[in-house]
Amino acid sequence: MNFFELLDSSSLTIVPTEFYFKSFDESFSMHMHSHENFEFMYAESGNFSVSALENGEQQNYEVFEGGFIFIHAQLPHKLVVTKPVKICNVELTVSPLPSDCKIQICPILNSFPIFQHMKKNARNVLVLNDTENILTTMLKIHQILKMYTSAEPQFFQLQALLLSLLIDVGKCYFNSKYNVDDLYVSKILRIINKNLAADLSAKSIASKLKISESYLFRLFKKKVHCTLTYYINQIRVEKAKQLLTKTDHPIINIGAEVGYNNRQYFCKVFSSFTGLSPMQFRKKLKKSEYTMALQGKTQTFWDEL
User: Fold this and answer.
1) What is the arithmetic mean of pLDDT over 117-140?
2) Residue 83: CATH number of its domain
3) For the chain, where are the alpha helices, taking DSSP H only?
């Protein structure tokens, strides 16, 4: 069954039932199988692949760390592991919608244009990068399922979390289709360059862009080829070098101007990039300027003879 066929239903809903969060290694083996549930599998650490049988042909889907796969019900498939990996799994089953249920997942999702688009281009398997908070929501669902007693409050709580999860899946799909990675990177760089003296923690940047911290870290490393922390420190040190060169501001003030309120930490970071403390850098610069000025005067003296 294709998940998107359910979106037109006002009498059915989907409910999380099975789950696990565990590690696998290359000794793991699984036979091709199918079941009545829809299935989420998230690569929390490491990579894995899923082999699926579609229209009589075997298709392989790679899932990399920080990504997830959504498999439709009744599709023959198997998990393939070649290196150690930790996977978060949630399975969903179709269930009649209780008459008093206030959260009607299918009609709500069907009202979003992105889900209309996904329905028109429906696939048996969906592989996406987590640009939102997929893993966090899956783990919250795990916690409720561990103590699930079919009590009404827990059912509604599960429905609310599942709706949040699926809306985030739609956002991940949108981001993958319209390739917003480069747009996010340009926004990140702009935030850093314009706010060197401000709080540039991953949490604050992610909050401004409304993306998850884990996605921020992965995206930045992928596109800029260094860690976020390294890049921020590099830009701050370059700015500090300019201030040390062009101004007579005290070292502690320059540190604050580029985002370091602790002089000792500022000196430590500065030294790691330049091999010199800020004071040594300034003295070396002044000595160099004095030497160049002296050479210029000497040359002028000889020219006048």
Assistant:
1) 90
2) 2.60.120.10
3) 105-110, 113-120, 134-146, 152-177, 181-194, 202-209, 213-224, 228-246, 251-257, 263-274, 278-304
Tell me what percent of the residues of the chain surpass a pLDDT of 70: 91
Pair 185, 172 in one domain: no
Tokens at 303, concatenated: 């020219």
Strands 48-54 and 77-80: antiparallel
CATH number assigned to the domain comprising residue 220: 1.10.10.60
How many whole angstroms separate alpha carbon 256 and alpha carbon 249? 11
Output Rg (C-alpha) for the chain, integer angstroms.
28
d(CA 87, CA 69): 11
| Confidence (pTM) | 0.66
Q: The domain containing residue 254 runs over which residues?
A: 181-287
**Tens digit of pLDDT for each residue in 167-193?**
999 999 988 876 677 778 888 998 998
Does residue 296 sit within a domain? no
Q: What is the mean pLDDT of the chain?
A: 88
How many residues can be counted in the chain? 305
Are residues 146 and 37 part of one domain? yes
